[in-house]
Every structure is written in C-alpha cells, then in structure tokens.
Design a protein that fits this description.
The protein has helices at 16-25, 41-53, 72-79, 120-125, 140-159, 170-178, 250-253, 281-286, 333-336, 350-353, and strands at residues 3-9, 31-36, 58-64, 84-88, 100-104, 108-114, 128-136, 164-166, 240-245, 266-268, 293-294, 301-312, 315-327, 342-345, 363-367, 373-378. The protein is an alpha+beta fold. It has an eight-stranded mixed β-sheet, with helices on both faces. Mean pLDDT is 84; it is low at 188-203 and 217-237.
Length: 379
C-alpha cells in the first residue's frame, strides 16, 4: 500500500531541493526518470554532484524546451553528468509541463510529483506543492499506477519522434540555442515580477514571508559556460539567433487600437530582454554586412534591404526582400533617451503580420554566418 506525504514549500519549512536530493541519493534505487518543464543552471548545479557520483545508476531526464526559460547552460551541465537527456519540443506554444521525479527498483518506487521545476524557484524560492508517494510494487494498485507512468516515458521518444530528441553531443545543445529553442543565461533576463508603477496596487502589498530560507543567486563552484562548446563546427547553413522579442504587441504587428497610435508599417528593433544597446546593436552587429546608404531626403537616416524568410506558427511563407532603416543622429532626443534607432518595414509582408491572433507571440530573428540572410520566426 502506498505511503503518501505532502511537500509544502514556502508555507512550511521544507523545500523540494532537500527532498529531491534525498531521492536521488537513495541507494535503494538504481533507476530514475525525471521530468521538468523548465531547467536552469541553479537546478542542475544543486543536483549534478549527486547524479555524477552515482555511476551505477541509470538517469533519464525529459526537459521542456521552446519555453523561453530552459537554458543552454543548464542542458550542458545536465549532459555533463552522463545522464540520458531528452528534450521535448512541442513545436508550438503548448508547454511540456510535467514535474515528476521517480526512483525505483523491483519492489518499490518513490515518486515526487507536483509543481516544482528544476529551477531556483521550483526547488526553493517559490511557494510549491507536491505529493511524495512510496509505492509497494507487490500491491496490484500501486504497480498499475507506477507502470502506467513509466510506460509513457519509456515510449515517448518513439511515440513522438519529431518532438522528442536525445542529446547525443554538445553540438546538439548549441544547435538548439542557435535555433531559438533555448535561452542563453548570459543574455536573457526574465522579469517575472509585476511592474511597480504609481498606479499599481502591488506596491502596497508586502512580499510574502516564506517559512523556508530563501536562496539568493547561483552559488556554483563551476557554472557551465557556452565557451565550453565554442569550438564545435557547425554547417555553413546554420542559423544563429541574434534577437528575440518575447511578447509581440499591437504596435509591432501593425494593429494598434489606441486613438493616438497609427500603423506605421514598421517594427522597431528594441532591447526586449537582451543586454544590448538598442541604439547600435542592430545597425553595427546584426545588419552590419548589408549595403547601407544615406537617404537623399532625410540625411539622418540610413537605409538597406535584406532577404528574410518569414515563418509563422511553423509555416514558411517564403523569402521577401524587406527594407531596413536606421537613425544616425546621436544628438536627437530619442537617442539621448536610449530609444531604438533601427526598424524593419513590413512592406508586402504586412498582411501576414497584422493579425490579432499573433499578439503576445514570440518573435525570433535568425541570421546566417555572413549576416546577409535572415529568418523571422513567430511562435
């Protein structure tokens, strides 16, 4: 008969990090499968020493990607433990969202399932809740419960061959990063806190006090770095992710509804969540190899054209030659206020872009090695 216990993180003194560490350290179990929707370096670093030390065990990880949270650094750290790591790409905005930690042998299985991801929040800093089950596999009901879950993850790789992939080399990780399916923790900073404006009610609400001790930062002895895989050779047609807009708004899509906002037919290349100087990054790095020329009538503006493949929700609409413009005046108010200076003019692509259904979608911008061919992908 199963033993059932709650894990109540934040509202009680326990946390998932200690419970999951205990499960992975339990010498009674030699086989593990673990599912996490999101993965960060913190989550991997806190468990990698346990996993690496248990060379007699079989570890299988099933990790969600294409979610703007799972990072290349985290996957690299997990890959370095010599575990089998499967990435789950749903190919859409549907999330692979399970959080499941399981160790088992012939007579017993221990399962932790609930809301905790392999991230600093999931393992300690968020309010999370899970159920811990210790199953007696001689009991028919316990065995049926366990075998049903186990069968799903034993077969997911063959049942969904186009969506589930086993990492076989570090090259796979860098390819996923450059395809926009992973984030680079050095560049992207997620801001999950409500904006605090003068009119916002959140400013009057004190931060909830957790009963477990909050962990700050990423106290790692050795944080996996992308420089570990810089020397990997990539085929010439590889696309590199050079910018990401994680939340397309009406202005970007040319469907503004504000009374004082007009559809300009263009989209500004703004900072979004990247650590860049949006005034210079696009003109001097992303589009630097294009043939720029000064506008004869507006001498403070440079113009260029480039070829873009447009891919929306997995469908390629082909290649289009689109115009780019860049404001060069460094004395302007916009420049002094650190506003974006570079924009893309949608032109004949506008009918594909100006759609309400694309609001809040993710836009990825890819470039080839020579920075003269580009892909815009909207997820």
């Amino acid at each position: 008969m199963a033993v059932i216990e709650p894990i109540i993180q934040g509202l009680a003194s326990e946390n998932h990090l200690s419970v999951i560490s205990g499960l992975l350290s339990n010498k009674a179990y030699k086989n593990y499968f673990i599912c996490s929707a999101f993965l960060s370096s913190f989550g991997v670093a806190k468990l990698e020493s346990i996993i690496s030390a248990r060379t007699e065990c079989s570890f299988k990880f099933f990790i969600g990607i294409r979610n703007n949270i799972t990072s290349a650094q985290a996957l690299l750290g997990l890959y370095n433990t010599d575990s089998k790591v499967f990435t789950i790409d749903t190919g859409s905005n549907i999330l692979f969202h399970p959080k499941l930690y399981c160790g088992y042998n012939k007579s017993n299985a221990e399962i932790i399932m609930g809301s905790a991801n392999l991230t600093i929040g999931g393992l300690n800093n968020n309010i999370e809740m899970s159920t811990r089950l210790i199953l007696d596999l001689s009991n028919p009901e316990d065995r049926t419960f366990f075998e049903r879950i186990k069968a799903i993850f034993n077969n997911i790789h063959t049942d969904y061959t186009e969506n589930v992939s086993l990492l076989t080399s570090k090259k796979d990780i860098i390819f996923l990063l450059r395809s926009g399916l992973l984030i680079d923790e050095r560049i992207v900073i997620k801001n999950t806190q409500p904006s605090k404006t003068k009119s916002s009610k959140v400013t009057t609400t004190p931060e909830i006090k957790l009963k477990n001790k909050k962990i700050f930062g990423v106290p790692l002895k050795r944080k996996p770095k992308l420089s570990d895989i810089k020397k990997i050779t990539i085929s010439p047609d590889t696309k590199y992710l050079v910018w990401q807009n994680p939340n397309l708004v009406e202005r970007d899509l040319q469907i503004p509804k504000g009374a004082n906002t007009n559809a300009t037919g263009s989209m500004l290349f703004k900072k979004a969540e990247m650590k860049i100087d949006q005034r210079h990054y696009f003109r001097n790095e992303v589009f630097n190899n294009l043939a720029w020329s000064q506008d004869p009538k507006k001498t403070h503006i440079e113009r260029a054209t480039a070829d873009f493949e447009i891919v929306i929700k997995g469908v390629s609409y082909g290649n289009f030659t689109l115009q780019l413009s860049h404001k060069t005046d460094t004395t302007s108010t916009s420049y002094q206020q650190n506003q974006p200076m570079t924009q893309i003019h949608w032109g004949e692509v506008k009918p594909l872009i100006a759609k309400e259904a694309l609001k809040h979608s993710i836009l990825n911008l890819f470039a080839n090695e020579e920075r003269n061919l580009f892909t815009i992908e909207i997820l």
